[in-house]
Write a structure and sequence with these properties.
- The longest helix is centred in the first third of the chain and has 27 residues.
- The chain contains six helices and six strands; from the N terminus they run ααβββαβαββαα.
- The C terminus is likely disordered.
- The chain is α+β, with helices and mostly antiparallel strands and about 160 residues long.
- The chain folds into two domains: about 40 residues, no CATH class; about 100 residues, Glutaredoxin (3-Layer(aba) Sandwich).
- The strands form two sheets. It has a four-stranded mixed beta sheet. Strands 2-3 form a two-stranded antiparallel sheet.
């Protein structure tokens, strides 16, 4: 039995050695293990934005729109209950707002959390200021604070619904 075990181990080592040497030859021809044997000319290229450009996009979003919502999904099809709640609150107050779907952009999803220092999505900004998420908006609604917030005559025009 020990002899059979050693034989299997030896065969495994030989197979791994053959794979490595065969792979070396492919790597010399420009293939990479990162893309399952796809030549480097045809591998996907990363277009991840730098953190600075994500911050710039966030600043632009909240400066250019009186009311801006970072959410999961879009206003017509929210992808989480909390995003849906915020959309319903905004609709109840007849607030026009712009939005970005953070599920479409991981850099934006992480960037907005850092920017606002708030760990969850959705995130609502009004007049360039972070207001909060679904729980905070529900509390503000119950306290009667949202009507005042949304009727601010000095704010910028609200943007139309849009995605990022």
């Amino acid at each position: 039995m020990l002899r059979a075990f050693r034989s299997v181990c030896q065969q495994q080592q030989q197979l791994q050695s053959a794979r490595r040497s065969g792979w070396s030859a492919l790597q010399e021809l420009g293939y990479s293990s990162a893309a399952d044997g796809v030549h480097s000319d045809f591998q996907p290229k990363s277009h991840i934005e730098s953190p600075k450009s994500v911050d710039e996009q966030i600043k632009k979003d909240i400066e250019d729109n009186r009311v801006f919502l970072y959410m999961k999904g879009n206003p017509a099809a929210p992808q989480c209950g909390f995003s849906n709640t915020v959309c319903k609150i905004l609709d109840a107050y007849d607030v026009k707002f712009a939005s970005a779907d953070v599920l479409q952009d991981e850099e934006l999803r992480e960037g907005i959390k850092k920017y606002s220092e708030w760990p969850t999505i959705p995130q609502l900004f009004v007049n360039g200021e972070f207001v909060g998420g679904a729980d905070i908006l529900m509390g503000m609604h119950k306290e009667g604070e949202l009507e005042k917030l949304f009727s601010d005559p000095h704010g910028k025009e609200a943007g139309a619904h849009h995605g990022s």
